[in-house]
Design brief:
It is built from one helix and twelve strands. It has an eight-stranded antiparallel β-barrel with strand order 1-3-4-5-6-8-9-11. It is elongated and about 65 Å long.
Length: 207
């Protein structure tokens, strides 16, 4: 029992001595598109942006866990030709992104996590003009759930991040029907983004 108590006390002291909380404002460029379940529908990447803040709890010099809150814009250009539903689309999301980070070396971090995004607004481009969807023709889901991963390169407390994210559930579902109104097939679309960002760690407690 004495050995166990000593071990627990030592572990608690170690965690406290190495742990620190930091906040990181960040901005990022999003290169986003939509992947689909049908080969005749394809999209091109468009440039959008993300702004937000991340909080990280540093367990030790190598491992941290955190949560980001951010405002993100995404979209795509439609390349479907004769099957085109709109020329382009743009979306605005409020996102929460829990993550884990492992730093095998001081200046490099490996990040894995996810995004849970709530749709704030969307617009489609028809004949060169951006328009809100007509009521009853809203195909997008209110929520988008993604997995994400990537790298962070550190220069002191500043960092550059390169992250990839992919929807695991369709953010848009469109159903096609025949002349009798019977559904014959469906199109499912998934967000896919490459994000290049910069940020800075603000530490609340130094080691």
């Amino acid at each position: 029992m004495k050995k166990l108590a000593f071990f627990l006390t030592l572990s608690l002291f170690s965690i406290r001595s190495f742990s620190q909380l930091s906040f990181s404002p960040l901005v990022a460029a999003n290169f986003s598109k939509a992947s689909t379940n049908k080969s005749e529908f394809s999209t091109s990447r468009v440039l959008r942006y993300t702004v937000g803040i991340q909080s990280s709890y540093h367990i030790n010099d190598e491992i941290s866990a955190g949560l980001g809150l951010q405002f993100s814009t995404k979209g795509y250009e439609d390349n479907a030709g004769a099957y085109r539903l709109a020329e382009a689309a743009k979306f605005q999301y409020f996102e929460a992104n829990p993550f884990f980070e492992y730093r095998p070396i001081k200046f490099l971090g490996v990040v894995v996590g996810g995004n849970v995004a709530y749709l704030n607004s969307l617009e489609y481009k028809y004949i060169g003009e951006w328009q809100k969807p007509v009521k009853g023709h809203l195909y997008s889901e209110n929520w988008d759930v993604q997995i994400a991963g990537g790298l962070k390169y550190y220069w002191g407390d500043a960092f550059v991040s390169l992250l990839f994210s992919q929807s695991i559930l369709p953010f848009e579902k469109i159903f096609f029907t025949d002349a009798n109104g019977i559904t014959t097939s469906s199109l499912k679309e998934y967000h896919q983004s490459i994000s290049l960002g910069v940020g800075y760690n603000l530490h609340l407690k130094k080691k």
